[in-house]
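Q: Sequence in, structure out?
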Amino acid sequence: MTENTAKTPKSDAKEPAFSLQINAQYIKDLSFEAPGMPQVLLEMREAPEIGINVDVKANKLDDKNHYVVDLSIGIKAEKKDDKKTLFLCELVYGGLVTLEAPDTHVEPMLLIEIPHLLFPYARAIIGNLVREAGFPSLQINPIDFAALYRAKLEQQTKSK
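A: Exactly. Output:
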């Protein structure tokens, strides 16, 4: 009989403490415009072109590790043939969070992980709003918030 005697190395260094709590989620701003209604419904023959803009902002509220994360999603739908605007939708979906983490991890947590948690709710709000406005269902694909964060860091580096 063979016995595994491999030992895991012990570390005297403490693991950094992470604590994350989403205290509240809310609609901070919501706007929907359908300038050509109801005529555009009669004219729409194919799926529209959809442009989506996403932005994330985070701010510290107080000295008790409370932060606000705002996930902004803007959508513009246009007819493919004449570029006529079908609808415009803008949502700022906020999250009030308590975050305790090492300083080097705070910004990535706020700009990657929290938006990743908020996104499904924001997507559902927009999808329901578009459908209730009389347009075909809109499904927003998942967003790579890590790529957005890296792009924001690159932009900041280039502007310096």
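Confidence is low (pLDDT under 50) at residues 1-9.
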